[in-house]
Amino acid sequence: MGKRIILSADSTCDLGDALQQKYQVHYYPFHILLEGKDYQDNVDIHPEDIYQAWWERKALPKTAAINVAEYEAYFRQWVEDGFEVVHLNLGSGLSSAYQNCVQAARQLGHVYPVDSGNLSTGIGLLVLRAADMIQEGMEAAEIAKRLESLKSRVHSSFILDTLEFMRAGGRCSAVTAFGANVLGLKPCIEVQNTDGSMKVGKKYRGRLDKVLVSYVKDKLAAYPDIDQSRLFITHSGIEERYIRLVEETVRSQLSFKEIFITKASCTISCHCGPNTLGILFMT
Question: Which range is least confidently modeled, 176-180, 211-215, 217-221, 272-276?
Fold first, then answer.
């Protein structure tokens, strides 16, 4: 019989409390730096706090990865107690967290970091697959190896309602943001499932409700081999009616066994702003 396994992930996997508890997933929070203070993502700061700081004071946070020493301290007790740890990181194209986690794992042994090549519930999909594998009795090293081979099957994208936070964070120019607003454009941001980096996909025009329906239909029609076991609808804070509209549209297109609705962490939300919503699934 193999060693007992701890399933862990960066807080950016955005699973939400219910799924975190159901699948016994441990989180380590990213740092949110706002107005001279260091907060822990979704522990003592939440997306609404970030939006309020921006609207009221034009204060925009920065995010900071978990460092090597933090990972070492986090994993050490489990390793000393005889556990092995499978830990899923935010994509290496977005953060140094994976590299830091690898260094900590080398120091301790028995820790298996996985570069998810993704963000938000794109990571979450892999976390749930890992939970399934643990339940099946698979060894930690084999789980990590399987997850590496699965990440290219994760498809994550989001519709942005506003480019103001991207512009404020230096991720698009003021001219681009102004032009998008004038033309009523809502871009689809697509995650590259090799390292988690992002690119702009189709640019939609019109009201958010119309755009979201078109976006969902486009994404679900783009792949002939979608795994219909699980799909995430993840948002950064949006009216319930839009969430229900997207869920209804998904159900009208494909019969997913489980559809989970979760809210993005501060690390994700502070870059995309409010009213961002995406669907995330595997093929």
Answer: 176-180
List residues bridging with 204 in a β-sheet.
186
Is the pLDDT at 246 greater than 60? The verdict is yes
This prediction has a pTM of 0.92
Q: Which residue has the tokens 């969430």?
A: 243
Is-contact 263 277, C-beta < 8 A?
no
- Per-residue 3-state assignment (H helix, E strand, C coil) for the chain: CCCCEEEEEEHHHCCCHHHHHHCCEEEECCEEEECCEEEEECCCECHHHHHHHHHHHCCCCEEECCCHHHHHHHHHHHHHCCCEEEEEECCCCCCCHHHHHHHHHHHHCCEEEEECCCCCHHHHHHHHHHHHHHHCCCCHHHHHHHHHHHHHHEEEEEECCCCHHHHHCCCCCHHHHHHHHHHCEEEEEEECCCCCCEEEEEEEECCHHHHHHHHHHHHHHCCCCCEEEEEEEEECCCCHHHHHHHHHHHHHHCCCCEEEEEECCHHHHHHHCCCCEEEEEEC
Cα 79 from Cα 43, distance rounded (Å): 25
pLDDT tens digits along 103-146 = 999 999 999 999 999 999 999 999 999 999 999 999 999 999 99
Residues in a beta bridge with 186: 204
How far CA 207 is from CA of 186, 211, 216, 240, 273, in Å, comes to 9, 6, 15, 16, 17
